[in-house]
């Protein structure tokens, strides 16, 4: 087993990013830091390094506890790092109703004008009340 691995590969392997490409793009755009310094994809991480990722306005930080090169299951992935993100910086899970409302509010472009029923539901969702 290696004592160092590329940061993009590690982020993908421990399931912080869904694809290695998205992990690499995050590194290239400067959203990934290792030990407080911006990290390109090829930057090597080893046990004890702190990796920070900025996504959606929140910065999450992890300490590398185990080196993995291949993608592992979720149960094993959580053993590979320690989450150092402060409680107030962690994303809050949305309620089931919020997820349903958000999914419903998305309209496919080019699907035409909303019907009268659609318009009423949109107004109710946005809290506009009666017009």
Q: Explain this structure to me?
A:
With 131 residues, this protein is α+β, with helices and mostly antiparallel strands. It folds into 2 domains: 4-89, Structural Genomics Hypothetical 15.5 Kd Protein In mrcA-pckA Intergenic Region, Chain A; 96-126, no CATH class. It is 31% helix and 21% strand. The chain has helices at residues 7-13, 20-28, 74-77, 96-105, 116-126; strands at 4-6, 32-34, 37-38, 44-46, 50-55, 58-64, 81-83. The strands form 2 sheets. The chain has a 5-stranded antiparallel beta sheet with strand order 3-2-5-6-7. A two-stranded antiparallel sheet has the order 1-4. A hairpin with a 2-residue loop joins strand 2 and strand 3 (37-38). The longest helix has 11 residues, at 116-126. It is elongated. The termini are far apart. The model has no long low-confidence stretch (mean pLDDT 84).
Q: What class, by secondary structure content?
A: alpha+beta
Question: SSE string, helix = H, strand = E?
Answer: EHHEEEEEHEHH
CATH topology group of the largest domain: Structural Genomics Hypothetical 15.5 Kd Protein In mrcA-pckA Intergenic Region, Chain A
Rg measurement, Å: 20 Å
Largest sheet: 5 strands, antiparallel
In the CATH hierarchy, the architecture of the largest domain is: Roll
Structural domain count: 2
- How many angstroms does the end-to-end distance come to? 66 Å
Shape: elongated
- Number of separate strands: 7
Helix content: 25-40%
What is the spatial order of strands in the main beta sheet? 3-2-5-6-7
